[in-house]
Write a structure and sequence with these properties.
With 129 residues, the protein is mainly alpha-helical. The protein has helices at 8-14, 24-33, 49-59, 73-84, 87-90, 118-128; strands spanning 18-20, 37-39, 64-65. Strands 1-2-3 form a three-stranded parallel β-sheet, sandwiched between helices. The chain is globular, with a radius of gyration of 16 Å. The termini are far apart.
Length: 129
């Protein structure tokens, strides 16, 4: 556990395993990092959307899901052990983006958003409009 993390790309790149909730922003960050994860969806959200989000990743092999009601030290330990002891799951994470994309699939410690990315270019055009 840490206080608010300001250097998220660097922290995710250094992690062997991520334990997190399953909101949209968290899922985007985890998928961008390519790091295997255990998602513990919050049950206190509208329409149980976090569990639905997490289950999509679970079905594709990109995450393990532990419901909060079932989450304790033992279940987290067993799930983490299963992921970290399986070389295929350990290097799994979300599927990497196509090679043609201009950003890396797993950020390194020196990774910074590229201002020449399609998203940055679109933002610049919108600001001018």
């Amino acid at each position: 556990m840490r206080e608010y993390i300001y250097d998220m790309p660097q922290v995710l790149a250094a992690a062997d395993l991520i334990v997190c909730r399953a909101g949209a922003a968290t899922i985007a960050e985890v998928c961008a990092s390519g790091t295997p994860c255990i998602m513990v969806p919050s049950p206190n959200v509208t329409g149980n959307h976090q569990e639905k989000n997490a289950r999509v990743l679970e079905r594709s092999g990109a995450a393990a899901v532990v419901r909060e009601a079932d989450c304790d030290g033992r279940s987290l330990y067993e799930t983490a052990k299963a992921i970290l002891s399986d070389p295929e799951r350990r290097t799994g994470g979300c599927a990497p983006p196509p090679a043609a994309w201009p950003w890396s699939t797993r950020p390194s410690a020196s990774t910074r958003p590229r201002s020449s990315s399609p998203g940055a270019d679109m933002t610049k055009r919108l600001r001018r409009a």
